[in-house]
Amino acid sequence: MLCKTVLLELEWLMRGFYGFxxxxxxxxxxxxxxxxxxxxxxxGRVEQAIANYAAGLEFADALHHASYRDGAxxxxxxxxxxxxxxxxxxxxxVLAIPK
Length: 99
Prior knowledge:
The structure is a single chain. This protein has five helices and two strands. The protein is mainly alpha-helical and 99 residues long. A two-stranded parallel sheet has the order 1-2. α2 (22-34) runs antiparallel to α3 (43-54) and α3 (43-54) packs across α4. The N and C termini lie far apart (39 Å).
């Protein structure tokens, strides 16, 4: 079983330590989720997160956002940067920033 937080750590390692770009990390994440004998926890949300990452969100934000996909909205304390990135491709649920 491949836990989605392991994918989060893998992306962080590839980006933060090795300096990989999203264009380099997305194929790796897609490859891992596509291995037939590897069970991916919360596969649907991981697939949505990878798609949102490809659409311009940071992977951690994309994974959080995908975890709320059944809701009408999602609150974030990440300021306006995450909200702008999620709004650009019209992702749902919409982001609310508490005041």
